[in-house]
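User: structure tokens for this one?
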Amino acid sequence: MIKTIFLKTKLPTLNEYINMERSNKFIAAAAKKKYTNAILKEVEGLTFDPIKYDVAVTWYKDSNRKDHDNISFGLKFILDGMVRAKVIPGDGSRYINSIHHHFELKDIGYYCMVEFIESID
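Assistant:
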């Protein structure tokens, strides 16, 4: 079983978030809340079985100017938003077995595609 969601919210990179932290911890906390809530709104109403999943994220980007490790930091907001929306019961190893990131250089109107694949673990 595979559950697929497409997210439009453009998330900050790790470097952008670190710069927020360095400038003011309250700005960074507000940003974490903002992006987590944005994802929460995008996934509200979805329901997943409380089983263990492998997660595959395809990040769509319009240029090669940002490093993949900086972009993939956005998964933190995605999983936290899904937990807050009660789509998944948790984002720890009890529910997430593995995480795979893919990057595509194309603009399709979505920021990323997240696939939750039932884990055979």
